[in-house]
Amino acid sequence: MTINDAVEAIDKFLERYAGSGGLRPVEKRVLPSAEDAATAFAEVYFAIDLIWKEQGSQGVQTIIDQLKKGDSDKKAVEAATGKPFPAFEKAWLSHVRK
């Protein structure tokens, strides 16, 4: 996987998710405050950290591949972890609290 593959997968996801036609300028993001942006970043960071610790790079690659195919973020996480999303979310919350 290259950085271009990752950017393409993220761009496709955002296009489908936000209906924006792709990446948007920072000033047009939907997060209303810097605190909301920092919280969102931390949430994603800890989710990826947990997947990396449990599944290694293959887990992250699976998420990217699933998003490229058009799966939802929840379906991509389920494919990467082999867990139903609620079970992943419970593990993620525990991981955040450590």
Structure description:
The chain is mostly helical and 98 residues long. The chain is 73% helix and 0% strand. It has five helices and no strands. Helix 1 packs across helix 3 (57-68) and helix 2 (34-55) packs across helix 5 (85-97). It is globular and about 30 Å long. 12% of the residues are buried. The mean pLDDT is 78.
Topology:
Layout: H1 3-18, H2 34-55, H3 57-68, H4 73-81, H5 85-97
Helix pairs in contact: 1-3, 2-3, 2-5, 3-4
Structure summarized in a few sentences:
The protein is an all-alpha fold and 98 residues long. It has five helices and no strands.
Shape: globular
SSE order: HHHHH
Largest sheet: none
SS element count, helices: 5
pLDDT below 50 for ≥5 consecutive residues: which ranges? none
Structural Rg: 14 Å
Give the strand content.
under 5%
What is the total tally of β strands? 0
Q: What is the typical, i.e. mean, pLDDT?
A: 78
Distance between the termini: 31 Å
Oligomer category: single chain
Which structural class is indicated by helix and strand composition? mainly alpha
Bin the helical content.
over 70%
